[in-house]
Each structure stands twice: as C-alpha cells, then as structure tokens.
Amino acid sequence: MNAQIRRNIVQTSPMRLSLLALASACLASTAWAQEPAYQASEQALELTVHYHFRNQYVYTQDWPVEQKAAELTNVSVRNVASSASTNSQDAFNLMITSGDLADIVGGVKDDFNRYGREGAFLPLDELIAEHAPHIQAYFDANPDFRNAAAGADGKLYYIPYIQDGTLSEGWFIRQDWLEKLGLESPETPEEVYTVLKAFREQDPNGNGQKDEIPYFARNQGNMLRLMNLWDARVSGSATYGDFAVYDGELRHPWAEETYKTAMSNLAQWYAEGLIDPEIFTRGPRAREYLLGNDLGGMTHDWFPSTSTYNVSLAETIDGFSFKPMLPPKTISGDRFEDARRQIVTAEGWGISVANEHPVETIRYFDFWFTELGRQMANFGVEGETYTIVDGKPTFTEAVLTDGQPVNAQLWEIGAQVPRGYVMDYDYELQWSNEIALEGMQLYEACDCLKPDFMGVALTDSEKAVYDRHWPSILTYMQEMQQTWLLGAQDVESTWDDYQSRLDQMGYGEVLEVMQTAYQRQYGATQ
Ligand code: CA
C-alpha cells in the first residue's frame, strides 16, 4: 500500500474539496454536533423497510452496521421484503401493486419519480430543509446532484446512493512488449497505430507465430473505445451509448462527424488485424483469456481488476507487465478519458405515503450524511472492521488480509449497500493494488475526464416520444457500428444514408424532448 499516492489522490480529487466544504457546513450545525447528536426520534421507533436490491439482497436489521445505527438514532428498521425473490424490480412492483407500502422503500430513480408523482412517495425537499441539515448541506454544495435525482416535476422523491471518485477505467498496455520492440508508450493516433502494428507483426510474445491480438476488450463500452483517438465519444455518461452534452446541448455521439471519421479509421485498423477479429463475440472472458495466454496487447478497462493480472500472471508469463497509460492525444491534440463512474446513481431510498413518521424518517436518513453515519456506511463498525488512524477511518489488518474481497466482506455487514449515502473513495483506495493506484494517480494528475451527462427525468408525454423512437434508433446505430467495423459496408459512402435514416427514425424528435428535459432539470445550475 502506497500511502503517498493515496494522499496525493485524496488531495487532488475535486470531490474531496466539496466534501471538505460539507464537513465545515456540518460543524456549523451545532445542534447536531453533540450528543444526542444522532437521535432521530425521542421515543424508540421501528419503521418497516422494503429494499430488495441488485436481484439478491434485502435491506436488513440484522446487519451490524444497522444495529449500531439503531442504537445511535433510536430508529430501527424491520425488513418486510421477501429474501426469496431473485428479481428486485418484481419485488418492488409487487409491493406497489399490493398497496401495502413499507415506511421506507428502496428502489430506483425512475420508479420513485413515476410513483412519486402518482402520490406513493413523499416529496422530500421541505422535509430535508427543515429536518435534515446534513443532506441539505450536501445538496447545497452539489446542486447538480440533487437535480440529477429529481423527477420531471422538479421534486425529489428519493435520496440517492452517491458515488465518490470519478475515475473507473483507463488504458492498459503490455509495457514489456513495448520494451522488447524498442517502442515508447504511444502518445498520438499515429503512434498507437505503429505500436499495434508492431504487436501484430513482430511476435512480441516470442513463440514464432503471428498470434498476437493487439487491441481487445471484454465489454461493449470498450470494444470501440479507440474511437476516442478521433475525438469521438463512446458515451456521454457512465451508461454505455448514452447522450452527451456538447456546449450545453444534448446530442448523441454516434451521430457526430467525429464518429464518422473514427469509424472509417477503425474499419481500416480492423481490416489490418489490429483489433481483435472476435471483438464482438469473444465476450466477458476476453481479458482473462487473451492476457492469460500471452496474446493481448492493449485494452481499456477498470483500474483495480485489470491491474491484478500483474500479480496473478507474474509466475506464468515471464516479465508480464500490463501497465496503465494516459489516454493518447487525439487527432485534434486533445487528451481525454471517456469512461467514468456514475456519481449520482439511480439507487436509493424514499419515504412512502403510508409512513406516519416522516420527520423521524428524514432524520434517520440524515444520520447517514453525518460524518459518523457516512463512515459506517462506507467502512462498517468502528473497532470491528475499521479504526481511526491519524483521523481517518482505516480498515483493520484482519479485513485487508482476509481471503474475501473487502467489498464482499462489507456487504455482509451492511456497509457499501445502496442506502442514500455518499461513498468515500478512500474505502476503495485502501485495498487497491499499487499499479491501480499509480494508474489512477496518472489520470487524476491529467484531469482529462470528460464531464458527464447525469440523465434527465422525462414527463409522460416526453417519455412517450422517447419510447416510440429511441430503442429502435439505438439498435440501428449498433448494427451499423458492427457493419462498418467488420467492413461489410464502407463508412464514407454510407454516412449520408445513415444520417437520413436517423432522421426518418425520429432522432430529431428524441433530441428535442431530451433537450427540453435537460434544460428543465439543469437550466438553473448550468
Ligand atoms: Ca507470437
């Protein structure tokens, strides 16, 4: 564990700054700074909770984190969701249609906004302003985050799980292959071409066969990530194939001229064998297979998991070194990273209309935004999974050296579960390996992450337009992506037809409702 790198990342993260602002805002609310600082109810109060999440978990009072929270807040929760269900959406729908609403309901943004407008969930803004100073301070410091979670009527119906740290993925390259071939880490599209070509032609794995796969990827978002070299975007958000914001205007990156140029070039690279011939079909084990068999040269993927191959393959592949590198500069001289972690997630919890204690409930929600509540939501129970070292929550040695991944250990005790809370990036840094940390430090210093489109809430009529046109447009875009890359059609000569087809399919109408919704949602803050 490299403490220096960790400190550097912590110091340079913009999110840290807003959290510092939040911390001082918390100190200012003196009524909550002392005992009984965390009490949400004078009398001991039990609230029912229905939160089935990620198709396999239920929110439960049995978690040690929840028991500690009940002690501090005087509010305990009792799970009423069936743990037998294996579909969280079904479990939610079943509860809604039964009409038997739990006091606290967990779910996803679209459902809160839909059923909230229909009256099943309480609008939270006033409750927050009057009774939840820590949540209020957080949203005051981050108005866009509040707006991202709000419904089409502008009201907030759920408290989202908010992630910290914006980096997720980066570029990785076989550093030992570069060295073997006397090449530098590529800095321009031309140099990327040269390197991939050399990987293809010069037998860097030394087995006498031309079996290297220069660029590979294990998921959709990264199959075409090389398009960034021509300034094209894979997505405008953490969701694959999402809209992007161009100077305050929403458009889709796959209808842009930069995309045309990118696809033309990628088709050429594919034809020359620089991109995995099975890029669309190899599937999620591509990384494991191609690295494990000493075949893959370059990819774009998550920092932590991709870095671990340096450890797991150290014994089997002589000199194996798969290192993060900065995004190469684009053809226009820009340098950017397109992949990011979603900050305001769709997951979270709200207060149902059946709840007779909304004030106590919002105070209980507020607990998770206090310093201690946030610590517990991220690190577990002090003295058990973490201790405070130099003023910072720090995992115990037992947690860090346990055979199970740290996040899996935390889920079992009720930490890092998607209640409404703010993640602490440091929780992850404490168990990331050195190479991942070095990669993230490179990217932090680069500060080249594209800002993300945080999504919009559509009104019923806007949603009708979107649903009528968008799914088939997206399918068509993806079909053409494959058609072009695999060389079945030529990009240049079919681009105009592609554009007219998008128009015929309703691309313009979709953009119009998206733009209206976008301005309504973020107009005041952007
Ligand atoms: Ca070879």
Describe the structure.
The two termini are 39 Å apart. By secondary structure, this protein is α+β, with helices and mostly antiparallel strands. 45% of the residues lie in helices and 13% in strands. Strands 4-1-5-13-6 form a five-stranded mixed sheet. It is built from 24 helices and 15 strands. Bound molecules: calcium ion. Calcium ion is lined by residues 203, 205, 207, 209, 211-212.
Entry summary:
The protein is an alpha+beta fold. Helix content is 45%, strand content 13%.
Helices and strands, with pairings:
Elements: H1 3-12, H2 14-28, E1 45-50, E2 52-53, E3 57-58, H3 64-73, E4 75-79, H4 88-98, E5 104-108, H5 109-117, H6 125-131, H7 133-141, H8 143-149, E6 159-162, E7 169-174, H9 175-180, H10 189-201, E8 213-215, H11 220-223, E9 244-246, E10 249-251, H12 257-271, H13 286-292, E11 296-302, H14 303-307, H15 309-312, E12 322-325, E13 344-351, H16 358-367, H17 371-379, E14 386-389, E15 392-395, H18 397-401, H19 406-413, H20 426-429, H21 434-446, H22 460-485, H23 491-504, H24 507-522
The chain binds calcium ion (CA).
